[in-house]
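Title: Prediction job returns without error message
Component: structure pipeline
Severity: low
Priority: P3
Assignee: unassigned

Description:
Job completed but the reporter wants confirmation the result is attached to the right record. Sequence as submitted:
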Amino acid sequence: MKTKRIISIMLVLLLLLSAACGDTGGKRKSSVDPNTAPHITLALRSGIYVDAIESCIADFEDENQVICDIVELGEEELHSGLLSDAKEATGKYDLCMVDGSWMAEFTAGGVLANLSEMGYELDDDIIEATKKICYKDKDVYLAPYYGNVTVLLFNKMVVESAGYTADDLMSLQDINNVCEKAKESGNLGFMYRGDSENNYVVDFLPILLSYGGWVVDDDNNPTVDTPEFREALSFYKKLISTGKAEKRDDLIIAIANGAAAMAIGWPGWYTPTAKSSSDYIALTGKKDEASESYNANVYGIWTIGIPENSANKDVSIKLLEHLMDPEVQKATIDYGGVPCRYSSLGDAEIVKKNPPFAAVLDALESGVYRPVMKEWPDFYTILGNEMGMIINDEKTIEQGLSDAQKRLEELMSNSG
């Protein structure tokens, strides 16, 4: 039995890698001589995001007779590395990936070049709501590259066994009903990531939004000790009690092989095909059938920009324009790309091959960016720390959120 389980897990992993990475063997190498050509350096978020960009670099290298050296970095490495490199007179990076939530911090710190001053503007094919984070004082500093946004990832058979279809998952109550039935059947219900403060917060945000709550008000004042937040967190504790915490890869495997029902997921993890055991939908933003519907899908969009201290801005802006070309972006889909473009996610043939893209488009059109403030990394660390203690029953909801509110108010007050 143990051997069969290992084989089953290995097969699921192979399917996930195949679906996420596409035909990576088809990537074309450029004919440029790396020993004689000039080089530029790209600082990219590791994973499927690199696969997408690597798939379309060769044509650019040939046309411009340049070599693009890629540095793959984890999220925190990328964040801290770009901030550190920005202190140098001449930086070592010429194009970079930026999480949308870093925008305020990076523009305040002079990390990013003004793309408008370099002649670049965002076109109308880019999904309108995804552009919001890219501007400062009406000038463009970033371009939305990879459409990462929260979705509800679920196992189709487990949902059907509970008497539901994807179209029936109209509220958080429906989601909880499926997870309760999965647990009663001996499976796990709702999975979540409990391995970092950021993941505690991010996995919960779609639930909070569905209750009409948020972490800050319009002036970025903390709003975590509120009736909406307390009610949402109470529901969330009930929901996750049907499952358990797992790291991302184990969570994906558990849902793919039917050991668990569902979780908050991201297209950047895994994009199911029509033949996959898993699927995903955009959350409706309703806590129950009778409640109001809110925008409840949270952006985790990876944008691209140019460091202000790049020594090769003339080539960098050409590369950014190449990477943002609609046809170039459409071609990255076979390598795991998820463009923030109507011409890609709304293409009938593409959606036929990748049905979840309909859900991604829906989520991207009505998504919510995490707070735009330079304090966000410290903010989610504090909130995630208190949420972890609440989830693990070290504090009550009331005490934990009261403590979080005080700590967050102090953070924002001291940051001035």
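Comment from assignee: result matches the submitted record. Residues 161 and 236 are 23 Å apart (CA to CA).
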